[in-house]
Write a structure and sequence with these properties.
- The chain is α/β, with parallel strands linked by helices.
- Helix 14 links the parallel strand 14 and strand 15.
- The longest helix has 21 residues.
- The relative contact order is 0.09.
């Protein structure tokens, strides 16, 4: 059964926001099951649900132990939750009339176990699953939950809740799949939120009474120490939603499949995002970096960035980093504008130095444009932490020429830079998952740790080494001949790999320490440096500042 959304329903989203919060005793429990406390999507919908139903308890269930620099270097995140931990989480969630979860695919197996335990403890608890995993793979999530959210959940949940409380047929709710008897009811998604609607959403939850699960202890109120342990001095957020690309490995392909409008960039006003950040800093004065996790920050029009930069520079006055940078949209005038406002780092997706592999990924940016983007960023190297570029290793279709093309590109790129190095892992239901299956190839799914789970090949050793050492050309030419695709039978170098990657981590940590940036160095050391005023002093009197020229709009991109 498929229920279509009529035009009247589609136009009522603003009216839903005006309904009063529920005063009844319905108990709603929301849990984010991931590694950390900075899931912006969860914090966004949790704030909305809390605003329309006051009896809502918001919880974080980290799937790894508290992060720290030693843990990063030793590649230890703490492992999965024990059976006792699973049971304690399930007991808390089972107390709710509605138990709702948010997770990515990497944490799906943990959610399976929690849900199974809830079924035993309280069979009457209605279980909902939202977040990236149910959106990308609803066929899997609906096997475990009573309902899954397949799109933007704020307004859809409002409709569901009203029907659920009043005993009406809530299985007609748009943007949801429901399991009813032996049938799966699949409803059409609501239209995507407009910028005006985004401006009317409540502030994201941020130390507003949430609880966090502590292993072997149970749930306790979130404290400042939790934010320090997981995010250091960084506040993470998202200003714009959407991505113009259609990369085959990315979960966004599923969003676009639901609604092609997802390729358009939508965002709240600059005033809204600046006020959100100011609210976070008022709660956590030690915050010293803001991280924007947008998919395509630089595709925003210059006029919008200009308004944002003006507000940010005058009212926030701490550095920020943008993680979603597409080489096509790197323009010198935009970079200059943002560096003047406080941007001290960027993260850009490159993925490969081979045209063949970029075509396989459906990445439209050509190699010459990637080169131009890196050169533009390099012009501001005195004012920024070395830019980080995303690289995907271990693609099973690579030829030796493809693999060597990537190390060639890394060798020639302007320095300094660092890399976010990933081993290719497949997100279920993406275009790539279907392509890999059609080719009869086997690549691990993303339920494994794709950031540290590499093969110790010589080629991977060389990629890490190039982040901190541009060796003589004659030596490089010799070493590149030892680089082969991962599927090629070849010797492994575990000791060399461990040594080189340790140097890579130390170099990366040093780059951040030079700028007194503790966005990737979690724990309390950064807090104490903030407490004693060292970070403020360093940034004010030691670091070089960039000043935007008066004819900024005329900077040639």
């Amino acid at each position: 059964m498929k229920i279509n959304l009529n035009e009247e329903q589609a136009s009522n989203t603003n009216a839903w926001l005006n309904l009063n919060s529920s005063k009844d005793t319905l108990d709603i429990r929301l849990a984010c099951v991931e590694d950390g406390l900075d899931n912006t999507g969860f914090r966004k919908i949790a704030a909305f649900i809390k605003s329309i139903h006051s009896n809502t308890k918001i919880a974080y269930v980290p799937t790894a132990n508290h992060r720290n620099l030693v843990g990063v270097l030793m590649e230890k995140g703490g492992g999965n939750l024990s059976e006792k931990d699973i049971h304690r989480v399930a007991q808390f969630m089972a107390e709710g009339d509605i138990a709702a979860f948010s997770s990515m695919t990497q944490s799906a197996s943990t959610v399976y176990k929690i849900i199974a335990d809830i079924r035993i403890i309280n069979p009457n608890s209605y279980i909902i699953w939202g977040g990236i995993h149910p959106i990308i793979q609803p066929e899997d999530a609906i096997k475990h939950a009573d309902a899954v959210c397949t799109g933007e959940g704020e307004f859809a949940f409002k409709t569901f809740l009203e029907l659920f409380k009043n005993g009406k047929d809530y299985t007609a709710t748009p943007s949801f799949w429901f399991r009813k008897n032996e049938n799966i009811i699949k409803n059409r998604n609501l239209p995507l939120m407009t910028p005006k609607e985004m401006d009317k959403l409540p502030p994201l939850t941020y130390q507003d009474g949430e609880v966090v699960y502590r292993r072997k202890k149970g749930f306790e109120k979130v404290s400042s120490n939790d934010f320090l342990d997981y995010a250091g001095l960084q506040y993470g957020t998202v200003w714009s939603i959407g991505c113009p690309l259609h990369c085959t490995y990315c979960g966004n392909t599923k969003f676009i499949e639901y609604d092609n409008a997802y390729r358009r960039i939508r965002h709240s006003s600059p005033r809204t995002i600046v006020d959100e950040i100011k609210r976070a800093i008022a709660k956590q004065p030690h915050l010293s970096t803001v991280a924007f996790h947008d998919d395509s920050f630089l595709s925003l029009p210059y006029v919008q960035l200009e308004e944002f930069a003006k507000l940010y520079k005058s009212e926030i006055k701490i550095p920020f980093v943008i993680y979603g940078v597409i080489p096509t949209y790197v323009r010198e005038d935009k970079i200059a504008l943002l560096v003047d406002a406080g941007m001290n780092r960027v993260r850009m997706g490159i993925q490969s130095g081979s045209d063949n592999i970029l075509e396989f990924y459906k990445r439209p940016t050509k190699l010459h444009r990637i080169k131009e983007a890196t050169e533009i960023l390099n012009k501001f190297r005195k004012y920024m932490i070395p830019p980080s570029y995303d690289i995907i290793l271990e693609n099973p279709i690579e030829t030796p020429e493809d693999t060597r093309a990537t190390v060639d590109m890394l060798y020639e790129m302007p320095r300094p830079y660092t890399l976010n190095i990933y081993a290719l892992r497949i997100i279920p239901n993406t275009t790539m998952a279907k392509d890999i299956e059609a080719r009869g190839l086997k690549t691990p799914m993303i339920d494994k740790n794709y950031f540290i789970d590499y093969h110790r090949t010589f080629g991977n050793c060389l990629v890490f080494a190039l982040t901190f050492w541009k060796m003589p050309k004659w030596l490089y030419k010799i070493l590149r001949e030892k680089v082969y695709p991962v599927q090629t039978k070849q010797p492994l170098y575990p000791i060399l790999f461990a040594l080189i990657r340790s140097i890579y981590y130390v170099k990366r940590a040093f780059d951040h320490l030079r700028f007194m940036d503790f966005s990737v160095l979690p724990g309390k050391p950064g807090y104490f440096l903030w407490k004693f005023g060292i970070i403020k002093f360093w940034r004010r009197f030691v670091l070089k500042r960039y000043n935007l020229p008066k004819n900024a709009k005329e900077i040639i991109s």
